[in-house]
Batch of 2 targets.
Target 1
Amino acid sequence: MKPLLAPSILSADFGNLKSEVRKVEKAGAHLLHVDVMDGRFVPNITVGIPVVEALKRCTELPLDVHLMIVEPEKYIPDFIKAGADWVSFHFEAAVHHHRIATQIKELGAKAGIAINPSTPVSLLEEILPYLDFVLVMSVNPGFGGQKFIESSVRKIEKLKELSLELNPELIIEVDGGIKVDNVERVLKAGARAIVAGSAIFKGEPEKNVKEFLKKLNQFE
Ligand code: DX5
Ligand code: ZN
């Protein structure tokens, strides 16, 4: 599949969210990545259900909601009701992964599991056939603008190998420290959904989206 670009609003100007979203939508982004943090699973607090609901009203882009929260199953129905189209929860924040993935799909959204940099892809072996996507964190979750962790490239390759065997339709998403100059490496490794926050919203979002798309469009 053609790679998808998912700008993360975490680095956008929250005082002008609507116009920030419009800019990336107009420039050709495919998804809008929304980072939900609870101050418990990660040491930061961001946005919740009302913001997802408001974003839904200002864009046609599918909302890719990345839940960095404990007990995600408690809130998933409300996030989907508010307009989340893709929902990922953290492997490390949940116990009943299969139950939660099924819950997300039954409510009509795409189901994904996010994994921290130190969580091995081998732990996903049993759940992989039930997922639409896996979000590989290439920084420790919690903040935008951090440095890409190099070992993530090998991890994406390993996950790609595993998915060819267990779930060829699986989409590998990568999140954290992605810039125009390292995106080709994660694409080559097998990533097909690319999250970028600071590399898109710092500076000129339209121009940044177009530069990313030039790289993404070289891949099938
Ligand atoms: C970090 C978030 C990311 C963040 C990425 O916990 O999950 O989505 O916005 O920001 P950059 O692209 O600046 O690393
Ligand atoms: Zn994210």
Target 2
Amino acid sequence: MKPVGILGGTFDPVHYGHLRLAEEMLELLGLESIRFIPAGNPPHRDAPGVSARHRCEMVRLAISDHSAFLLDPREAAKEGKCYTVDTLRELRRELGSDQPLCLLMGGDAFLQLHTWHEWEAIPELAHIAVGYRPGYALDTNSMEPKLHEHYRKRLCGVDRMREMPAGGIIGLAIPRLEISATMIRERVAERRSIRYLLPEPVAQYIHQHNLYTSC
Ligand code: ATP
């Protein structure tokens, strides 16, 4: 059974770093599709610069030409705090207990996983695929000991991801584009070009709606 990928993020705004990560994971893991889930009011970081409605709209524009990329606005539509673990529980109920689910993230996000709400329940609900820079395998020394224990015990290959609905962790070497949403927000505020850092319709949306004009 092809796994369904889940890419959560603030997407404030979405950029080519996110899109390349998703495209590489789609290919390397043979995913059926990837759901982009913009966070509503993320509990583990500062409040996003623009509303969830704008962030969803930018994701919709960025992925509209890709048949396997889908916008899932469920977190953005919720009031108050919203945790990844609850979203995974919802998806598990909707998609059934046999459907392999795979939570996608960059190495930076994975190293913070132990700070997430009920994080130890997450591997029970989905596999985790971590993209790391080629030549720079994940730094296990800087992992929180409990996270390291999960990582060591659950490390698996692509085949296991199809056979089991959840429980595996896979590391994938994925070239990382040196683009961040922070960099884009700063450039817009400084009236500098953001061309080629994100899809052009998203850049136009930012300018039309005067987003990020002050950081
Ligand atoms: P900010 O600069 O506001 O912190 P960000 O660009 O890091 O934002 P997020 O929405 O926080 O974007 O990231 C969502 C996911 O995408 C995370 O799992 C993160 O590791 C991953 N990610 C972000 N930027 C890149 C990139 N350039 N290459 C690969 N993965 C990325």
